[in-house]
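Posted in: Protein Modeling Q&A

I'm a second-year student putting together a small comparison for a lab meeting, and my supervisor asked me to include a predicted structure for Nudix hydrolase 20, chloroplastic. I've never done this before, so apologies if this is the wrong subforum. The sequence is pasted below exactly as I got it from our records. If anyone can share the structure token output, I'd also love a short note on what stands out.
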Amino acid sequence: MAAVTKVEKFSRALLKLTETCNSFILPGSSRSECRPFLVGNRQVGLIHQDVWNHLLHYPDVFVVSALEESKTSNRNSLTLNAEYKTAAERSDAVAKVLEDLRQKDIFISLKGWRDETYDVKATFTDMPLLAMERSATSLFGTVSYGVHINGYCHKDGQLMMWIGRRSKTKQTYPNLLDNMCAGGLSSGLAIRECAIKECQEEASVPLEMFDRLQQTGCIR
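Accepted answer (user: helix_wrangler)
Welcome! Here is the predicted structure, written out as tokens:
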């Protein structure tokens, strides 16, 4: 039997890590304790019971409603009040709730307040239904998007990758290894625009190199 190579060991370790990160979709996860978050008739997130209980204190903004497919059960959804007609109105209403929760120091995630928003939408190609403070998106289970840029070069006939190390003061995953640069897709930014921004901020990539920036795929 052939010996397992270092590459194979590393690949297996990455696969195990991926399975751990994706455990939310597996039976027995906390998904069963979450309820849909809707804007209009579009589901945009999932809210855990712990978060749900606090949001019920804001009935002018969030409305509890029964799901069509489960009216015989106790599984309800939380819907943003339909009185807010535009994305700007929805964003403002939710922002006030989040600021209040932040001041009350209820959720750990809000300690990492960024003053940066992510667009909330049902699918990536949809128009945004609202913009939400980045640190709060995990509370609502909304899908957030980001760009990841890998840099490589050839040295002594070998393909070499640039590996970064995160700052010790980062709010998330400090001092750990990372790809060359990456960042969340903030409200209003196009993918390429975001990629260039992150390359300049995190890796000081000169402008003349961006003609070689290539999009290679999408992972969800």
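A couple of things worth pointing out for your meeting: The two ends are 36 Å apart (CA to CA). The longest helix spans residues 87-104.
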